[in-house]
UniProtKB/TrEMBL annotation:
InterPro entries: PS_Dcarbxylase (IPR003817), PSD-B (IPR033177), PSD_type2_pro (IPR033179). GO terms for molecular function: phosphatidylserine decarboxylase activity. This is Phosphatidylserine decarboxylase proenzyme. Catalyzes the formation of phosphatidylethanolamine (PtdEtn) from phosphatidylserine (PtdSer). It comes from Candidatus Rhabdochlamydia oedothoracis.
Length: 303
């Protein structure tokens, strides 16, 4: 597998990502003849039939899986001092995966005109969503129409701004509101569960518009109506919403969480609603993901 390099926003250092399950990512998504042959037969079964993810998820929720927690923490250098509960309280690997953090572990930027990163993830931002298709290769274009499956929303956001947040299995997997907002009714679009690893996305960017996803419109005072999408991925058949419809939430309040696996968030802002932070814009223009933490600044409102 080619090295996945990201920029750590805290240290300003470039780091190599430690990939969970890299053998299978290579096997199914690498651009080699053998991988193409194997993926032709195996990938449609594994990604398009939720049975496989449900079976794997069942194991991760069983008490047998708790013995994988400590080796995982050691291998991926997970900071246990941030955990709200001690590791000994986790009865399964999934309990560890959906862990809560101490509030002080993720301080929230307080300025009212500033939106925050909604999750611990690797970020790309696009001030104009129309700039996005050039980022990936092999001529497979990203389609807002396929992603949203709603012509009215496509027309509203086709010239808007977009955030892609890629969560890895090592990350804290709860996601939060990026600003003070009142959420509407979430809409489920069922789909496949392909990996959102960069190797997989560069092989087929249409994964983002083929995978299972949930779309929620957030009504906000400073950022207009923004769309919040949770996208499932390999072994992530479950997207859990913990918010109440039509209740107003403060910036940083929890919106929901993913069960085990890698996953992805997309935020879509209406045109001329947000000015992303310059470091995010600069790195994204260079096709460089930035690893940021929930609560850090995303950008400021334009109005």
């Amino acid at each position: 597998m080619p090295k996945i390099i990201y920029l750590d926003r805290l240290t300003k250092e470039k780091k190599q990502e430690k990939v969970y399950g890299n053998f299978f990512i290579d096997l199914l998504y690498e651009d080699t003849f053998s991988s193409r042959v194997i993926s032709f037969f195996i990938l449609p079964l594994a990604a398009r039939f939720s049975f496989f993810s449900k079976l794997y998820g069942f194991f991760k929720k069983s008490s047998m899986s708790r013995y994988k927690i400590i080796p995982f923490i050691k291998k991926f250098d997970v900071d246990t001092s941030e955990f709200l509960e001690p590791v000994s309280h986790f009865c399964s690997f999934n309990d560890f995966f959906i862990r809560r953090l101490k509030p002080e572990a993720r301080p929230i930027v307080q300025e009212e005109n500033r939106a925050i990163l909604p999750a611990d993830a690797r970020y790309l931002v696009f001030p104009d969503v129309r700039e996005f298709p050039h980022f990936f290769i092999k001529g497979k274009k990203f389609s807002l129409k396929e992603l949203l499956k709603n012509e009215e929303l496509v027309d509203k956001y086709k010239a808007g701004s977009m955030v892609i947040a890629r969560l890895c299995p090592v990350d804290y997997h709860r996601f939060h509101f990026p600003c003070k907002a009142t959420p509407g009714q979430p809409r489920l679009i069922n789909g496949a569960l392909f990996s959102v690893n960069p190797l997989a996305l560069k092989s087929n960017i249409k994964i983002l518009s083929e995978n299972k996803r949930v779309i929620t419109m957030l009504a906000t005072l400073r950022f207009g109506n923004l769309l919040y999408l949770e996208i499932g991925a390999t072994h992530v058949g479950s997207i859990h919403q913990t918010f109440q419809v039509d209740k107003t939430y403060e910036k940083g309040d929890e919106k929901g969480y993913f069960s085990f696996g890698g996953s992805c968030l997309i935020l879509l802002f209406e045109p001329n609603r947000i000015h992303f932070d310059q470091d995010l814009i600069k790195s994204s223009a260079q096709n460089q993901e930035v690893r940021g933490l929930m609560g850090q600044s995303l950008g400021s409102s334009i109005h």
